[in-house]
């Protein structure tokens, strides 16, 4: 009985102590949690303070630099003000002599104006002379323009003559390379200018310039395909001038029954002098 009671009393004491221990552990745990929260808040506050301190240091540095700059500018302004005050004092000192300088300048101005009066008169004369020279220059320019026009015309005429000379020279050089006369076998086409009524001779528009000369003989054909005969005639030149010639018709050749007509086209081929001319009596007796 006594042991049981003792055991019961001890068991109650243990339960009580255990409850106290749990309470102490819970308070200890709460204190630790609170401590951690306080430490976290303290760290955050510390970081904020450090950041604000750095920012304040940078701002203080900037303000210090700006104050130094302002101090430098203030020193420069103070020096400039001192220089300006010195200059102002010098100007005041110089201005004290201005009235006398004005009087001296007025006197010099009067002397200059007196000396300038004849120069002004001379200037007027020079301007009048200049106007006359300008007029003469304008006349000379007009004359020069007319001379230039004449020169241009002469140059154009010279160019034209040069071109004509070159063309004529080229033409003459070509003629130099060619025979001066119609050679044997060469053919010439022309038209009869006129025919003797007796059919003993014809006038031709061929002269010395066309390369013919006296006593040349030609075989003469009618190139017209519709001609009544193709027999060849024979002409012998008896008169040769600069732009025309006269040829006798040799009767032994050609179809004498089909007379030639003025304006008729013929082809003349240079040949050797083999034909016999009729005497003047035979020619005169021909009907």
How would you characterize this protein structure?
The structure is a single chain. The protein is α+β, with helices and mostly antiparallel strands and 287 residues long. Helices cover 63% and strands 13% of the residues. It has helices at residues 2-95, 98-177, 280-285, and strands spanning 187-191, 194-195, 201-204, 217-221, 233-240, 245-249, 265-271. The protein has a seven-stranded antiparallel beta sheet, with no helix packed on it. The longest helix has 94 residues, at 2-95. It is elongated, with a radius of gyration of 71 Å. Residues 279-287 have low confidence and may be disordered.
Map the helices and strands.
Elements: H1 2-95, H2 98-177, E1 187-191, E2 194-195, E3 201-204, E4 217-221, E5 233-240, E6 245-249, E7 265-271, H3 280-285
Antiparallel strand pairs: 1-7, 2-3, 3-6, 4-5, 4-7, 5-6
């Amino acid at each position: 009985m006594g042991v049981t009671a003792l055991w019961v009393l001890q068991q109650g004491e243990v339960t009580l102590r255990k409850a106290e221990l749990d309470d102490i552990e819970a308070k200890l745990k709460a204190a630790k949690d609170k401590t951690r929260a306080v430490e976290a808040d303290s760290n955050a506050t510390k970081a904020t303070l450090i950041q604000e301190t750095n920012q304040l240091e940078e701002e203080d540095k900037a303000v210090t630099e700006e104050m130094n700059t302002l101090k430098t500018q203030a020193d420069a302004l103070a020096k400039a003000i001192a220089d300006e005050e010195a200059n102002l004092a010098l100007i005041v000192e110089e201005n004290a002599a201005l009235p006398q300088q004005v009087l001296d300048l007025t006197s010099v101005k009067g002397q200059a104006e007196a000396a300038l009066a004849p120069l002004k008169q001379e200037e007027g004369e020079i301007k009048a002379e200049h106007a006359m020279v300008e007029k003469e220059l304008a006349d000379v320019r007009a004359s020069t323009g007319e001379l230039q026009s004449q020169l241009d015309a002469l140059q154009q005429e010279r160019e034209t003559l040069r071109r004509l000379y070159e063309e004529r020279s080229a033409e003459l050089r070509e003629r130099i390379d060619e025979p001066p006369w119609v050679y044997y076998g060469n053919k010439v086409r022309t038209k009869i200018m006129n025919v003797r009524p007796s059919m003993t001779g014809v006038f031709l528009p061929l002269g010395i310039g066309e390369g013919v000369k006296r006593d040349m003989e030609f075989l003469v054909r009618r190139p017209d395909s519709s001609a009544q005969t193709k027999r060849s005639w024979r002409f012998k030149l008896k008169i040769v001038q600069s732009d025309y010639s006269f040829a006798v018709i040799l009767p032994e050749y050609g179809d004498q029954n089909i007379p030639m007509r003025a304006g008729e086209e013929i082809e003349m081929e240079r040949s050797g002098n083999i034909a016999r001319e009729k005497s003047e009596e035979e020619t005169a007796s021909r009907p």
